[in-house]
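Many introductory courses stop at the sequence. We go one step further.
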Amino acid sequence: MHGIRHGIAVARVERHHGEGMIGRQQARQIPGTHPGYNARSVFQTGIGCMAGHSKWANIQHRKNAQDAKRGKVFTKLIREISVAARGGGGDAASNPRLRTAIDKALSANMTRDVVERAIKKATGGLEGVNYEELRYEGYAPGGVAVIVDCLTDNKVRTVADVRHAFSKFGGNLGTDGSVAFMFKKLGVISYAPGADEGRITDVAIEANADDVVVFPEDGSIEVLTAGESFNDVKAALEAAGLVPDQAEVSYRADNDIAVSGEIAQQVAKLLDWLEDLDDVQNVYSNAALGEDAYQ
């Protein structure tokens, strides 16, 4: 099995980095690594290096915050379903973005009736609201890069809210493209510490995932995929009984920035504040935050 894994790894490296046939030691030098990187890429591609430090503490913090504000989370999920259905049609089988939005909504315990009503509104079956997709970029304290994706029916309100959040917590709202170049789009399928690494890896290989990353600091596991293959890899893992704790198409930076103490707490507050804004759908950053950032 190890030979198979490494053979797949070479193919992945060629496709993503154009580096040709490279060995295990060279794979660790692929752009995206950094001196403090300590996660283990099972495929040895280096692709997982953009995952940086474990995001498990961040995932649990965000999940707990969302559980406390379920009504607001539902509103954001309905907006995403609406925009996905309007842009690509109401058939989830032929609309990957809609399929991902529906899966996310159902995993948050939204009923199918609510999901179907949102789709009907978006596709003209019922009267609904038109939302505009906006992206803002900026820096949090400590030089942390932040991307804020929004869906809004009032652009003036949204930009004012986002600018206020950055100013309130010592950050700066930047111009288009000021930080987006640091990030790459990828599917992230996350498993809690203690998950079966061997089975996850075997299924991920068969499903053509790009990498499996194991974080030694807490034992959590991430399966990384190309954005367009996310749903297929996730479905294969679930069919094998490996239901992830979280799965999403996300943006990950090539390098994380480790922040601590008061700066880390300021960054965490900014990210939380942005997440809580009605018009904000997703917030991405390259901050490496530990549990102490949320105290």
